[in-house]
Write a structure and sequence with these properties.
Distance between the termini: 16 Å
Number of helices: 10
CATH class: Alpha Beta
Largest sheet: 8 strands, parallel, barrel
Radius of gyration: 16 Å
Number of strands: 8
Bound molecules: 4-methyl-5-hydroxyethylthiazole phosphate, magnesium ion
Strand order of the largest sheet: 1-2-3-4-5-6-7-8
CATH architecture: Alpha-Beta Barrel
CATH superfamily: Aldolase class I
Number of domains: 1
Order of helices and strands: HEHEHEHEHEHEHEHEHH
Structural class: alpha/beta
């Protein structure tokens, strides 16, 4: 469906139900997709929705992403990811272990793992992750988070055989920095959800990332 995982990772929109009214959720994702977002991560942390609502919204989201040929991964929730027919799962260090998730998943699937040091990076690699997420800059969007120091992040990217996506505090103004460190893309929440014009923000970030990547796709 998508060209390559590296190309799909250029700009990942991570969903957040907290920044815009509920009735703008899907239309904001659609705006980002129309303006070039290459991947979507369905992340529901607001606690406002029951599983039925998370499922129903997930079905709409996966249908929308696939209309644009864009993969959808689900954060944390293996059950929701499988139930809605998502393309993969994104997990952190406190979530279901990757080998367990892979065993349950029927076949294929994109598995992303958030890592914060070399040990976590090596383990995710050994366990068969497809891509890694790494915290680049400070952010107020996620509470239990601290970004990886630039020097460590660069050495993680250098050693890793997997494509890495930078997350945390990324805006169009700094999106080229993690690409310079060797990341293949960026994942954003507030830069798009909080933007006065999500279309402009999406285009601006993507343009910055593509320029910084050059022909590295
Ligand atoms: N994981 C690490 S930082 C973060 C997540 C989900 C939040 C990123 O949000 P923002 O608004 O793009 O800084
Ligand atoms: Mg998680």
């Amino acid at each position: 469906m998508y060209k390559s995982i590296n190309a799909a990772m250029s700009l990942c929109l991570v969903t957040d139900a907290g920044f815009r009214p509920a009735d703008e959720f899907l239309s904001t994702v659609e705006t980002a997709l129309k303006n070039g977002a290459t991947m979507v991560q369905y992340r529901e942390k607001s606690g406002r929705y029951c599983d039925k609502e998370i499922y129903d919204r997930g079905i709409e989201l996966v249908t929308l992403c696939h209309r644009f040929g864009v993969p959808l991964v689900v954060d944390d929730r293996l059950d929701i990811a499988m139930a809605i027919g998502a393309d993969g799962l994104h997990i952190g260090q406190n979530d279901l272990p990757l080998p367990v998730a892979k065993q349950i998943w029927p076949e294929g699937g994109i598995f992303g793992v958030s890592v914060a040091d070399l040990r976590e990076m090596r383990l995710a690699q050994e366990q068969g992750a497809d891509y890694l997420g790494v915290g680049a800059f400070p952010t107020t969007t996620k509470k239990d988070y601290s970004n990886v120091e630039a020097k460590l992040l660069s050495s993680m990217v250098k050693e890793s055989s997997l494509p890495m996506m930078a997350i945390g505090g990324i805006q169009a103004e700094n999106a080229s920095i993690p690409i310079g460190w060797g990341c293949v893309g960026v994942a954003v929440i507030s830069a798009i959800w909080k933007a006065p014009d999500p279309a402009v923000a999406t285009r601006h970030i993507l343009e910055t990332v593509r320029k910084a990547k050059g022909d590295r796709v």
